[in-house]
Design goal:
alpha+beta, PG1857-like, 2 domains, 18% strand, globular
């Protein structure tokens, strides 16, 4: 997993990505933080469960947006937040639009049932 992390750092530094998200075991937290601090890359770490962490890293602006969501678990994101995160992570735009519409229609169906 660390190889993917190092490759994501390389892609960020070369301008291919503005934001990266990696999931690690908690035991790797110190190593991850040391590397991001050494490279002077902004980051945010969320504990997920007892054994894992999600590490967002990249541009300051993207990290600030993630912080503004005020959510730790990805499943808690609103359809809009999920869309924004996907776009920032560089996911396919059309697929993100389709995913957003699917989430949106599911939300409307659920509220119509209440």
């Amino acid at each position: 997993m660390m190889e993917v992390f190092y490759h994501n750092i390389y892609e960020y530094q070369k301008g291919l990505r503005n934001l990266c998200l990696s999931t690690f075991k908690k035991k790797n937290r110190q190593k991850v933080e040391e590397r991001l601090n050494k490279e002077k890359i902004f980051y945010l770490i969320h504990d997920i469960g007892e054994e894992k962490i999600n590490v967002y890293f990249g541009s300051r602006e993207c990290i600030e947006i993630i912080k503004s969501f005020n959510k730790i678990n990805l499943y808690e994101l609103t359809p809009e937040q999920d869309f924004i995160l996907g776009i920032m992570l560089g996911y396919d735009r059309l697929m993100q639009c389709q995913r957003y519409l699917k989430h949106l229609s599911f939300s409307h169906e659920a509220s119509a049932c209440i």
